[in-house]
Amino acid sequence: GDSVTQMEGPVTLSEEAFLTINCTYTATGYPSLFWYVQYPGEGLQLLLKATKADDKGSNKGFEATYRKETTSFHLEKGSVQVSDSAVYFCALSGGGSQGNLIFGKGTKLSVKP
Amino acid sequence: IAGITQAPTSQILAAGRRMTLRCTQDMRHNAMYWYRQDLGLGLRLIHYSNTAGTTGKGEVPDGYSVSRANTDDFPLTLASAVPSQTSVYFCAPPGAPLHFGNGTRLTVT
């Protein structure tokens, strides 16, 4: 079945460092891809999305490009801030009879000042 | 999540007890989903319903049941709660919600 694999955490970075969180997927058909973020004590929020190959989703300085050839959707940010400390989840929506979201296990990011 | 209401917001439940988590929507979504979120495991699909009168099993259905008597209500029932069902539960519409809300935080002791 469809699945999402993202890099294990936790990831600890200094402020202004470059961030990459890897995400790869397995899916039949052509899924839409998403990154969600969960700040401490809050619910999941949609951070960005891409619905077809080569699309780039972006929001709040974060970017991810839908790479069909490598089945990847890596999350990047050029300069992280302390306020970016959160758990990040990669997810896909493959349609089919269920139409649900399939999530990775999450990657905890801690940014130190 | 706008248009979707879950109740209760939190609950402490003794093992072996029966519990129903309520989910009500006013957005007329045909499809609805129940997920659980556990530390280190992300969100996993418990059950889903594609339309009123139909339900299906997700990734982790054991110990749970759902019903869909009408479009608006999609309750999740734990017939006999066990500690491994301690989790945060989310009722969600189709697609990718902008925000999942705080869900229902259930602790089974």
How would you characterize this protein structure?
The complex is a heterodimer of chains A (113) and B (109). Chain A is mostly beta strands and 113 residues long. In chain A, a hairpin with a 7-residue loop joins strand 10 and strand 11. Chain A is globular, with a radius of gyration of 14 Å. In chain A, 40% of the residues are buried. Chain B is mostly beta strands and 109 residues long. Chain B contains no helices and ten strands. In chain B, a hairpin with a 3-residue loop joins strand 4 and strand 5. Chain B starts with a strand and ends with a strand. The model of chain B has no long low-confidence stretch (mean pLDDT 93). The interface between A and B is medium-sized, with 22 and 26 residues.
Strand/helix succession of chain B? EEEEEEEEEE
Largest sheet properties of chain A: 6 strands, mixed
Task: Give the termini distance of chain A in whole angstroms.
Answer: 41 Å
Helix content of chain A: under 10%
* Succession of helices and strands of chain A: EEEEEEEEEEEE
Class of secondary structure makeup of chain B: mainly beta
Largest interface (C-beta under 8 Å): A-B, 22 and 26 residues
Main β-sheet, spatial strand arrangement of chain B: 2-10-9-4-5-6
Q: Please state the CA-atom Rg of chain A, rounded to the nearest Å.
A: 14 Å
Give the number of DSSP strands of chain A: 12
- Return the average pLDDT of chain B rounded to an integer: 93
Give the N-terminus to C-terminus distance of chain B in angstroms.
28 Å
